[in-house]
Amino acid sequence: MALRARALYDFRSENPGEISLREHEVLSLCSEQDIEGWLEGVNSRGDRGLFPASYVQVIRAPAAEPPAPARYANVPVGGFEPLPPPAAFKPAAQQPPPEPFPPPPAGYPFPPYGGSYQPSQGSDDDWDDDWDDSSTVADEPGALGSSYPDYEAAGGGAPGRYRLSTRSEPSLGPRGAGHPPGHPHPPGGGGAAKSSATVSRNLNRFSTFVKSGGEAFVLGEASGFVKDGDKLCVVLGPRGPEWQENPYPFQCSIEDPTKQTKFKGMKSYIAYKLVPSHTGQQVHRRYKHFDWLYGRLAEKFPVISVPHLPEKQATGRFEEDFISKRRKGLAWWMDHMCSHPVLAQCDAFQHFLTCPSTDEKAWKQGKRKAEKDEMVGANFFLTISVPTGPGASLDLQEVESQVDGFKAFTKKMDESALQLNHTANEFARKQVTGFKKEYQKVGHSFKCLSQAFELDQQAFSAGLNQAIAFTAEAYDAIGDLFADQPRQDLDPVMDLLALYQGHLANFPDIIHVQKGALTKVKESKRHVEEGKMELQKAEGIQERCNIISFATLAEINHFHKIRVRDFKSQMQHFLQQQILFFQKVTQKLEEALHKYDSV
């Protein structure tokens, strides 16, 4: 029999994924197991989604006749104790809803947003022995368990990866009232005083805004000591908010990928030589080291677009073409890392660049330090320092307009990048196969003509025969030029597009964090107008939203700055290579033409 429930109160959906309920309405449940105080089901109008578990009462079937004694009479059937008989249904006005399951505390380590990547928090013991280039971080034994600590332990103050926050204001209201987070008290409850009104929480506890710690920060639940070295400064530049420039800029080359082995040749891997310009000391890193670093950075910086790494490959990873292509992709990745004022100075990135390859102990110490970083989640936003004083405040309406404009820009850029990538890939395929074949067919035809003319033994025709044979060779060489050309011009363009498609995939989550903060500000202003919230508390929410807005606009400006630099350079390179290519083609044709001068 399908699980059903009866609505005890009216409920109006406010977020995507929710469904509305009407009092006494009967719903079909997808599961009786609630998700942090919320159930999933289908209402009488056929809408499917989430709703507060405390707003409904599960309708259970009448108890069946007890089964005949089993062989092991002391073991309950099904492995569970029999459920007690259900309480009789009472009208909503007489029966308050049950206490909902409390939400996770601020700083609770949800999986990182923006993809399926699961960073490892496991032991270092398997760092060099059990993880080869074909494995993923999520495959590490214990990675899942260590990334998702026990909820009760986290809530009870047990030592964990993140220091628990102390809440600066009551964000959920009195829990004894039994109302779900983010919604008014159910009918029959007392009215709230002005000072106890709060901004609602998002229903979807797995949204980017929640997982990134943005909600907890905006609601004032983040606390921690920020060292001067951890501060990330946003300044006002000519284009608006910008990340403060790195006072010691540097670059890092990636060279000489070499195949290395361990365990007496039983395991092979590719190591890349990195040479940072600010140290001049070379280190060797495997792809798994890049992968680990990416996971740390994607988790730590929710409002910064961490560039994506080139994709992994299960087979053929030791082939020369694949190694060359991956090295070029890693070079682009490294360029964007070094060019970002925040990422370039991150401790984890500096450890990655400078720790000697042979010092395993130092590497593991730095790795553990990065994985135990407390300035993540809601606490990360505490590290952001923004301009203060006259003229430094942001107009939230203007910010919303700028972010919406950037959102439309990224959508259009993503579409055009996909189109260009498809067109370039198709054109490269034609050059490598079709154009080469066609030019060589022309060359073969000229060669056949030359061989036919050679049957004439007259001396005065020898020069012509040689000239036509040379023309055939020229067209054959031009076919080879076409086949080799995509490596010089189209492939670099597609490599750049791949890198930017990764950035464009990051920004919806970054924008979602800023939008979520802005929604909380609007809600707090409405509470102040209705006399339900003190002005001071609403101003605190707006101040924290400003910090997220400053950071978001700074990241948008950095993206545009780097985009103009990269595409200017790449288009210049593309056109230069095209000119060189056609100059080579022209040279081949001119050489063939001159052969006829002596005929």
Automatic annotation (TrEMBL):
GO terms for biological process: cleavage furrow formation; endocytosis; endosomal transport; mitotic cell cycle; plasma membrane tubulation; protein transport. GO terms for molecular function: phosphatidylinositol binding. Residues 250-360 form the PX domain. Its main location: membrane. Keywords: Cell cycle, Cell division, Cytoplasmic vesicle, Endocytosis, Membrane, Mitosis, Protein transport, SH3 domain, Transport. Residues 123-133 have a biased composition (Acidic residues). Residues 85-112 have a biased composition (Pro residues). SMART domains: PX (SM00312), SH3 (SM00326). Belongs to the sorting nexin family. This is SNX18 protein.
